[in-house]
Amino acid sequence: MSHAALLSEMESASVFVSPALYEPFGLSVLEAASAGCALLLSDIPTFRELWDAAAAFFDPRDSDQLIAALRTLCRDEVHRVRLQRAAAERAQHYSLSKTVNAYRCLYASLLGGAAGRLTGAPCGEMLA
Asked: Residue 52: CB partners within 8 Å, gap ≥ 6?
């Protein structure tokens, strides 16, 4: 499936589920949130840090908990819409320009140079 087709599917979905046991960031979660999906995420530190109050969480080792959480989101439109809006709003915090700037600053610091010398842009604002 092409990336464009995948994004089209996400835009027509109401809920995105990620049962990951480990995830360093979760680009697919960010894409789903940007597409307007309510997020149902495994309760792992990365997802809590990035999506707390903008997603529903479940124990990824407990299939009954996942089923119950998914049923809730499917049946409770008010809750689902609230999470869709919260996820979309949170996704705006992780813009491409902020991500590029964060990587630029990281690389500059690893090279021992001032990041501002690379592009003239400040490194004060990272991903948050």
From this structure: none
Cβ atoms of 7 and 33 closer than 8 Å? no
CATH superfamily to which 3-94 belongs: Glycogen Phosphorylase B; (3.40.50.2000)
Instruction: State yes or no: pLDDT of 63 exceeds 60.
Output: yes
Is the distance from CB of 104 to CB of 118 less than 8 angstroms? yes
| Residues 21 and 44: beta-carbon distance below 8 Å | yes
CB-CB contact of 73 with 80 (8 Å)? yes
Q: Which tens digits make up the pLDDT trace of 13-24?
A: 899 999 999 988
| Domain extents in the chain | 3-94, 95-128
Task: Look up residue 19 and give its DSSP letter.
Answer: -
Q: From CA 84, how far away is CA 20, in angstroms rounded? A: 20
What one-letter code names the amino acid at 51? W
